């Protein structure tokens, strides 16, 4: 048996605050979702002005990043390159903006963001994770 790191309530607050600060700094109306390593929702905040659908999409991106243990951009790129069979995978949001949170080789959760361009969503998620001060690989 081994010991595995997990996200604490404080970690979630740090990630959320940093992600939302990054979004607000750029005047981006988004939803930020944070999930644990099982894809269970720990945090969801739809910033003022973000569309209603962004709550579902951000949550889906976070869950997809956890299930796949990789950024959701990987799936978006595969589909764009013609691997459309991937659309039948049991993941709900294969668009850029979902970023897994890794501590060494351990997956501890993910951040999903929706509301602006996909690369901007991902930048917000990465800004939140960076606030933990870990090497997220």
Automatic annotation (TrEMBL):
<protein>
    <recommendedName>
        <fullName>GlcG protein</fullName>
    </recommendedName>
</protein>
<dbReference type="InterPro" id="IPR038084">
    <property type="entry name" value="PduO/GlcC-like_sf"/>
</dbReference>
<dbReference type="InterPro" id="IPR005624">
    <property type="entry name" value="PduO/GlcC-like"/>
</dbReference>
<dbReference type="Pfam" id="PF03928">
    <property type="entry name" value="HbpS-like"/>
</dbReference>
<dbReference type="InterPro" id="IPR052517">
    <property type="entry name" value="GlcG_carb_metab_protein"/>
</dbReference>
């Amino acid at each position: 048996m081994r010991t595995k790191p997990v996200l604490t309530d404080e970690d979630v607050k740090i990630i959320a605050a940093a992600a939302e600060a990054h979004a607000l700094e750029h005047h981006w109306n988004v939803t930020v979702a944070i999930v644990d390593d099982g894809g269970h929702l720990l945090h969801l905040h739809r910033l003022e002005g973000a569309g209603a659908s962004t709550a579902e999409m951000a949550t889906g991106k976070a869950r997809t990043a956890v299930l796949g243990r990789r950024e959701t951009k990987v799936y978006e790129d595969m589909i764009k390159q013609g691997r459309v069979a991937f659309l039948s995978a049991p993941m709900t949001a294969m668009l850029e903006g979902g970023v897994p949170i890794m501590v060494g080789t351990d997956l501890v959760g993910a951040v999903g963001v929706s509301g602006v361009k996909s690369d901007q969503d991902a930048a917000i998620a990465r800004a939140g994770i960076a606030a933990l001060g870990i090497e997220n690989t």
